[in-house]
Fold these 2 entries.
Entry 1:
Amino acid sequence: MSPSRPKAKRWRAAALSGVLISALIGVLLATTLAWQGRDEPARDPDSSRSAAPADAQTVQQGAYLARAGNCMACHTSAGAPAYSGGRGIETPFGTVYAGNLTPDLQTGIGRWSADDFWRALREGRSRDGRLLYPAFPYANYSVIRREDSDAMFAYLRSLTPVHQPNRAHDLRWPFNTQAALAFWRALYFEPGQIKVEAQADATLLRGAYLVQGLGHCSACHSARNALGASNPLDLAGGLIPMQNWYAPSLNSREEAGVMHWPLADIVALLKTGVSARGSAQGPMAEVVLHSTQHLSEADLQAIGVFLQRLPEQASRLPEPAPPTANRAGAALYDKRGVQGYGEQGQGVPGAYPALAGNRAVGMAQPVNLVQMVLHGGYAPATAGNPRPFGMPPYIVDLSNQEIADLLSHLRSSWGHAAGAVSAVDVQRSRAQPGR
Amino acid sequence: MARTAWALMLICLSLLAPAAQATQIFEDSMAQRSLACTHCHGAGGRAAPDGYHPRIAGKPAIYLYNQLLNFRDGRRHYGPMTQLLAPLSDEYLLAIAEHFSALQLPYPAPVPHKSSAELLERGRTLALQGDAPRQLLACAQCHGQRLTGMLPHVPGLLGLPRDYLNAQLGAWRTGKRRAHAPDCMADIAKRLQPQDIEALASWLAAQAVPAGSAAAPSNAPRGAQDAAVGCGTAKAPQRP
């Protein structure tokens, strides 16, 4: 027994209480700050309604920008009227329900002014000063230009009001308190923290604005810490919370980086969901369906140029375990997979992507592959690719072990050298489907 | 030893041969595009032998279209359907619905089930005559005199497994299965008792599908079918 141990214990206790006390002070300070924020000068609640209605062109521009921001994806519940809110966004801390953005006076944004809307985007505060949850990506939105905010507001005001009371968030203590949010913001948020770098090129600037700002790509394509915070400038890949999909790094060639793609292929992927070099699947398929396919050629090119010039970084994923040949998987592939993808994993151009050389197959993180085989999937049905081919869901007829074997076989074939997939990996996605 | 190895290899090769012959060749068709559907619903959408994934072949196109929308938009719940349909457009869902609707495949004979004569009679009465005191319309009122459906969007009720009918009527009754408003079927199902559902499912599943079983056109001179007009259906997308 070491004689210094009781001393160390005392030290640890002292350090621990120190941490607790500073945390408490932090919370108190932050709470005070939050409440200070509530003491906003009272505004005329009718100011926005007395304003002249926006012209048709502004409304149309606002509709376009709302598409670019894919606001509808979160602010519309399945089967409900567009923008009437109520969709639950699952987070590790509980479920956050998106608000009603239609101009209903009681339940929507009917009493909001353009200033209120602008402040919500920039500062993450509701009309009454309440702090909003960062599931609403205001760290990204804080770069949105005032005229774009006003156009989106004009568009939302032009919608038919839907009476749909906002649903209370279902979050665990302490995450359900304004104090916790204030504390979180003190650590991770500062209004206007992203400054789109002063680049001479207008195309690059526009691309940065769409990717880092309005399009909030980092909401999925960056890793979140234990408190759910991510860097709005980071695009180096991350697991999408609660969805069992991995949004791959846009900085790495081994993942989803496009620095070596021709611009036309990047544009095609975002416009149609498919390209000569890959297709959009899972959550990205929905982003293409609802958002990027509607963007102008110029904006898609700007996004493409910005993505091409992202600094290249090695994948942050851990080195995969050495591949092992999997005979059971090879037999299953011969029986089930070979029809669609061919003996050499070559795929069918325009219908089934090649498995050989496919980055999704060889990526260290196998969760997307598991999703595809378990639940199947279609590329998005877009104007440019209206009738995509589909992958059947094997959840009903293959066991976890069979799917693990099949994927381990693919990951050790045709030059791939990614690690084996285990039955536990498959069970995780089976038990908690992505949607 | 070498001879055994040769024999084994020959056996293996002969086992491989039929599999190689069965390999489908890729074709640019709706059948190829909807392999994700037929994987569970059987070749051509003839139903899976499991009794759970129903026949979709030959059902009215607008009925199928509505069900695809219902799964995608959260009015019906089945994980694999929801995830598959999430990135698909209304237009494509209609095209898939029309593809399966046009496939006329023979129906299998009803699977025998030991139900009491009393239960079957109760099912028959409910299906064909309804129960006026309880304000229960007969199934035939909307689903056609022969229960083979009414165009454009009311499905036939024959040729479906007992378990499937039981599960669907139960889901309508508890609100788990829904349709576009006005959701007439939900109103009716909520008035059914569990024993009514058992009787209906048992009797319907025991009926052979009559020859020429396609759904009747909606302009058939039957006033009663008006009850179903506009029930539980979305407007199909406009074609250019």
Entry 2:
Amino acid sequence: MIPLLAAVVLLAAETSAGQPKPPLTHVAAPGPAQADTVKVGGDLYVLHCLSCHGDRLQGTPQAPPLTNAGAASVDFQLSTGRMPLEVPGTEPMRGPPSFPRGQIDAIVAYVVTHGGKGADIPQVHSSPDLTRGRKIFEENCQACHGATGTGAVAGFGWLAPALLQSTPLQTAEAVRTGPGIMPKFDAHVIPQADLDALAAYVDSLHHPDDRGGYSLASAGPVGEGIVAWIVGLGVTVLLMFAVGETLRRS
Amino acid sequence: MIRRLVYALDDRLGTAPFLRHALRKAFPDHWSFMLGEVALYCFLFILASGTYLTFFFHPSAHHVVYHSNSVPSLNGRSMSDAYASVLRISFETRAGLLIRQAHHWCALVFAAAIVVHMARVFFTGAFRKPRDLNWIVGLTLLLLVMGDGFTGYSLPDDQLSGAGLRIADSIALAIPVIGSWFAYLFFGGGYPSPEITNRLYAIHILFIPLALGALIALHLAILWRQKHTQFPGRGKREDNVTGSPLWPAYTVKSLALMAATFGVLLLLGGLVEINPVWLYGPYDPWTVASPAQPDWYVGWLDGALRVAPPWAIHLFGHTISALLWPGIVLPLGFFGALYAWPFAERRLTGDRAYHELLQLPWQNPLRTSFGVAALTFAGVLLLAASDDIQARLWSISVQQLAWFYRVAALVLPPVAAAIAWRICTELQARHTYEEDHPARVVLKRGSDGGFEEEPVATP
């Protein structure tokens, strides 16, 4: 316990100094006892979450209450590094998680036992049905996240993030909880088998099939237009100039 | 061998005098005169690569089930025959992907070459009488290439195709009075109609290429008859034409350019991915992909749609769609102004003479300013067409960007024109001054080997 507290104090000092938080990989994971886990989670909550979300998860003018944040939501926000926010009030962006797995589980346990009600961490099974997953993706996800999962604007300053690092579990959590301005899709809209297929398809987007050569797919026709002008016409005109001038002088 | 062939032809057709004349014909020496030739060779390339693709493409909206492991996430998916055949061209046809990509790259480079060629013709005043005729033919060629590009973009029936066609349908509907009838007639029913792929195919591979071929022939015939223009310089007058003979000098040069153009296009087709339709997915009318952009030559019109204010008019119980302004009035006005410019310039300057000698851009500030304004306007709109990608890149609001481009499209063209005008008049003043004050110096070498300047009376 002492090394954990020491680390926590150290972390608090660093946070208050405004420095980036190093991942606390040197801290031992909490023991198997549930009560201990909640206790550790409570300590972490006090240090990293309380100032914005309040001492009873009731929220503050800076941040929403967590009383409707279930395990899936908290786990998604922490495991994708969106929470805790470096600057309160800004749009949460994906980044390296601030806590190791064990501490995330502890914070999740604390929030759930202290009144956070919402979707539990969803089940995801591996699915071979990429065709089904792609169909679900095209109908529900690509309008904001882009056909190739590269992310796109969602209007009024909001960005739908890229999905190129999303693990199957995180995909499922986002679908079930609807983080940010994303809508929530429950089991009536996307049943479990479809969710599995969707998570597998999103996972397959991490390695796009760029058999056509050097990929400009994330910029689509915009990148193609730039290449056509600079490389296509540009190189041709340079060659034309070279040929024209060489033959003129000879 | 060639000699015998020529003799044989001459015996039957009497072609020797024509050939002797034609092979001695003067072709221009300045490299910038070959821009149009890049476009010509792009036409040949796109014709050849397109012919290959027609062997394998199915212009049909009929739905089929795709069974192939080439794209695992599409295996077993119901899709249009057109899209499935594009997948087969890409993955199961020998050289299919290479030719398909090179064909698409060629379309982009073709249009770019035409624009640069036209800019050369415009800013040097090469379009003046008697070549105003060929300016009209050339501008029509650009419009045809844009049309062929758009129909080609629409054929694979992927998500971008579908989104583009949906926009085209909306613009057709926005034509006042006849819009609904016209759109139904053209699309063969409400959108999306099973007829449209067929019709676009006929337009893409038959009607427009035929019109392009005929107009290119006319373009070259007029050029052959009128001969090329030339930059002012030693030995170049209004009543002569100088250059290298077609054979052998210009033929070698031109064939080298053809090889360069084909080489660049095939390298691009083999090395750089373009329009990966298997990543975009087949089109379903109820889905939409984002970001979605057209090819660059249609991009400026897409940009206009994005930033134009939503001004719909309600008249006598009818609605005139807000798309009328950016979708119809703007392109008509823009190309109308380009068609009319040679005649407008004649009227504005009162210069109705024949011109064989070119002008440099600074010699005609009015024309240069107009051209710069038009290019700036289209350029701003083209940038506006990728506002969503820029918003993501720079993490700013896409609405703010739309406002920025809305203002920029109106403000930047006059500003650019004013700057161009200023530069032109400054250059003009300098040239006038130098003509009036030629800096002539006579150096005299003395017996000691040194030089001495002798004052010369200026005239």
